[in-house]
Design a protein that fits this description.
This protein is mostly helical and 125 residues long. It is built from eight helices and no strands. Helix 3 crosses helix 7. The chain is globular and about 45 Å long.
Length: 125
C-alpha cells in the first residue's frame, strides 16, 4: 500500500483512529516522534484542538498505521516499535525516516516494503 492509496478516503481511517492505533501499538513517545511532534504533550495538543492536525502529520500517522498493519498481518505486532527504532543494514532508522519524510508515496512505499521484508525474514520465509 502506498501513501497515495492511503490518502484515498475509502482506505483511510480517520486521523484519530490512526493515532489511537499507533499510540496503543508503538507507545505515545514513538508515535509523537514519528508524527513530528517535539513532545508527547505537543502531539496530544494537536488532537485537543477543534481542527485536525496538518496534512503532513496526518500522512505520517497514516503511514505509521500502515506499518503497524504489516506487523499485525504477520502476527508480529509486538515487534513494530522495535523495528521502527532499529538501525537497518543501510544505516537508517525507520522511525527517523518516517519523521523526516512528508509521508509521501515514495517514503511510505519504501518503509512498507522494508517492514514486509523484515517480517518475512523474522518468520523464516
Amino acid at each position: 500500500m502506498t501513501a497515495a492509496i492511503l490518502d484515498r478516503p475509502v482506505f483511510t481511517n480517520p486521523v484519530n483512529d490512526d493515532a489511537d492505533l499507533c499510540v496503543t501499538t508503538l507507545g505515545p513517545e514513538l508515535t509523537a516522534y514519528v508524527a513530528g511532534a517535539g513532545s508527547v504533550h505537543e502531539f496530544e495538543s494537536w488532537f485537543a484542538a477543534a481542527r485536525l492536525p496538518d496534512r503532513l502529520v496526518r500522512r505520517r500517522l497514516a503511514a505509521a498505521a500502515a506499518l503497524v498493519s504489516v506487523f499485525e498481518a504477520a502476527n508480529q505486532t509486538a515487534m513494530a516499535a522495535a523495528w521502527l527504532r532499529e538501525l537497518d543494514p543501510a544505516g537508517y532508522v525507520p522511525a527517523r525516516v518516517l519523521r523526516m519524510s512528508e509521508g509521501d508515496e515514495t517514503s511510505a512505499k519504501a518503509l512498507l516494503e522494508a517492514a514486509m521484508a523484515w517480517t518475512l525474514a523474522a518468520a523464516g520465509l
